UniProtKB/TrEMBL annotation:
Sequence ranges assigned to domain Alpha-D-phosphohexomutase C-terminal in this UniProt record: 377-447
Originating organism: Acidithrix ferrooxidans
Keywords carried by this UniProt record: Isomerase, Magnesium, Metal-binding, Phosphoprotein
SUPFAM superfamilies recorded: Phosphoglucomutase, C-terminal domain (SSF55957), Phosphoglucomutase, first 3 domains (SSF53738)
Record's protein name: Phosphomannomutase/phosphoglucomutase
Amino acid sequence: MDSLDKIFKAYDVRGLAPEELTPEVAEAIGYAFGQFAASERIVVGRDMRPSGIALSESFISGANRAGVGVDEIGLCSTDMLYFASGRLNEPGVTFTASHNPAAYNGIKMCLAGAKPVGEATGLGEIKENARRYLNGEFKEVADSGVNASINNKVDLLEEFSNHIRSFVDVSKLAPLRIVADTANGMGGYVVPSVFGSLPFDLTILYGELDGNFPNHPADPIQPENIADLKNAVVSLNADVGLAFDGDADRVFLVDNNAAPLSGSLTTALVAKAMLERSPGSTVLYNLICSKAVPEVIIESGGVPVMTRVGHSFIKDVMAETGAVFGGEHSGHYYFRDNYRADSGMIAALIILEQISKSQTPLSELRKPFERYCDSGEVNTRVSDAHAVIAFIKNAYDKRARATEIDGLTLDFGDWWFNVRPSNTEPLLRLNLEARTQEEVASKLAEVLAVISKADSVRS
């Protein structure tokens, strides 16, 4: 595996900076993306990680060598980059490693209109041309001057903030008390701008931009990283807590009792709200969401469509179906009128609007949507994930309804589970749901025993 193979992932580029993702590599990727994008201009942003300044400058230099002009938006959340790509109708790139530790950086890419670029939709081509650039195959280009005059600096923060607010009726918002833990990430930049003109009493924890994450990791899916937020919600008697990841495209909510909401629960709440304003629409959910999600979509008059895990798959299906909204259990929420891109900020505002309109605390508003218990994601290291999945399918043959959209989902009626291989590690990812926590524990032990037996047979 060479250096580029190591940092090019299924959906983006990510690696240690500057050890793996060096300025030279960033320049090569900039040239390769400029070639691939087939556009006179691209838009480039970055998060608050210190390494992002030099990396983005090198990338822009590479793009210029490919004859492509750059609209620089500077500091941005990832959903702001997608907005910029849609608004300017240009391919886009942002330098971010999302929730990863401070030593990492990365590159998320899209085509004009925020259309996703992934392993099957261009990343492979970009990687190969970046490799050729590093090998000197474009020497005449590499030796030529860089025409930086074709670059512009563009400020889209205010326009982005207005766009986010357009998804709710601002006049219906109540003066709720909100705590937002932005974890020294990009939420500290965009949250004050979006919420600034709204009638909320807003407290921001760790709002200073600091890519070294001095307070806690910017990964809100880990329970220990929302402990400060939960304490603040209790001490301030807040109505809602919001936990953002490093690039602020994901959000996890905490209710007025400091109880977290799962991504599935948030998806169900937002789906119901979106169907109130777009009756009869299609709503997407990924295959590890709770069964409550399609139930709520049907009850709300919508059409549920299951998708694979991953933003590129969801955006493609959203384009095919015209779906108004799509949610992932991992905390990504996609909106048709947001260029089919994801934005945790929009999802959070929609739930705040629902709390305001119903005059019901979130701890009560959530109850009708909490119908099942789940295992969370359980990862098992296996020698051959695909062979283990085949063994599991055979072990449960004719006992459940099987779906093979992404790995294997087996639905037994009163419980179900999905197993799928990791894109980047020799891991099998298991998600299981049942009616009670006792059933979850029992069925989880059963399925893990089958996985263990399958892997021992392979070894």
